[in-house]
Amino acid sequence: MNLNITGHHLEVTPAIRDYVGAKLERVTRHFDHVIDVNVVMSVEKLVQKVEANIHVSGKDIHAEATDNDMYAAIDLLADKLDRLVLKHKEKNGAHGRDALKHQAVE
After folding, report:
1. Whole-model pTM?
2. Residues facing residue 77 across a β-bridge
3. What is the pLDDT of residues 80-99, one digit of tens each?
4. Contact between residue 84 and residue 63 where contact means Cβ atoms under 8 Å apart
């Protein structure tokens, strides 16, 4: 998994970089076919915003989260990405299982 973290009006410290990496490990634990992850963190007045694009085979998944605290926004983003990746995994896995069930019945 290639992890690219950028900051917009924000310096990305090693602590934030490690925190994002640790949170995104959960996504790769559920789904091994993650190719690329691009994370953009930005600050506008008092709102901390984190966006992520995950490139998996056949699809790009986008999620964003905002909060007053950057670490809370990263937590929200990790939860959203986890749900979206699991949904993508179930959706793709269902086609193969359904096809096998239909072949066995016929």
Report:
1. 0.81
2. none
3. 998 998 888 888 776 655 55
4. yes
